[in-house]
Amino acid sequence: MWLESQVALKELLAQELPATPPRPERDRAAFSQGLATLFLRYVQVVRRLETCHDQMLQPQKRRMLRRVLDGALGRVLELKEALVQLDRSEYHFMDHVLQDLKLTPADVEVPVPKYFLLERARALKERQQVLAEILARMEPSQPPRPSRAAPSRDEAVRLVQRAERLRQGRLRARFMGDIRRDEERERLARESGAKELDREQAAIRIQKVGAAPCPGWA
């Protein structure tokens, strides 16, 4: 894999730095295809170099591979910037180039070197330790109140159903209270011996009261 990377790098350097300077390309499509081809070939070199660096055990060779890998990654970033400036977009259509190089869309992804992740993890851990020390020196403050997230659709339905059951329960309790008061009133009336008037007797009494002359009338 290291030998393949060496051969590919030599070919790329010979293509980018020829003995005689090439003529400027006037065809935009041809220029875009050339940039895309260089970009994909450098990406393949970076993928192989990253694998070699990850599997290398000798420290001296790892340092040498690290320098080569950093240089290849820098060239990938430069070509990516050139493609963005040319296409005015972060996304590029390289189907024809992929077919020519017999690659898949997964081969376009630029790998993140594992040493970069390890170094960043160490830096983040140190930063967290420093932050923990600063917070430990500060006076304890009240913990912030957790913000209530918006309820989901199911939770909203359950809240509405609960409110409706409470409303119906209050109405039922009021209705039962009215019934109990009426029953209590009837019971007291029966115990006091008062007779309950029927509809006809009540109408007769109302007529008598209405027909009686009021005092002071002429």
Report on this model:
The structure is a single chain. This protein has 218 residues and is mostly helical. Among the domains are: 2-112, no CATH class; 158-192. The chain is 72% helix and 0% strand. It has 7 helices and no strands. The termini are far apart. Mean pLDDT is 78; it is low at 211-218. InterPro entries: N-DRC_Component (IPR052267). This is IQ and AAA domain-containing protein 1-like. It comes from Alligator mississippiensis.
Span between N and C termini?
Answer: 131 Å
Low-confidence stretches: 211-218
Structural class: mainly alpha
Number of strands: 0
Mean pLDDT: 78
Question: Which secondary structure elements does this structure contain, and how are they paired or packed?
Answer:
Elements: H1 2-16, H2 28-55, H3 59-87, H4 95-101, H5 114-137, H6 153-192, H7 199-211
Compact overview of the structure:
By secondary structure, this protein is mostly helical. Helices cover 72% and strands 0% of the residues.
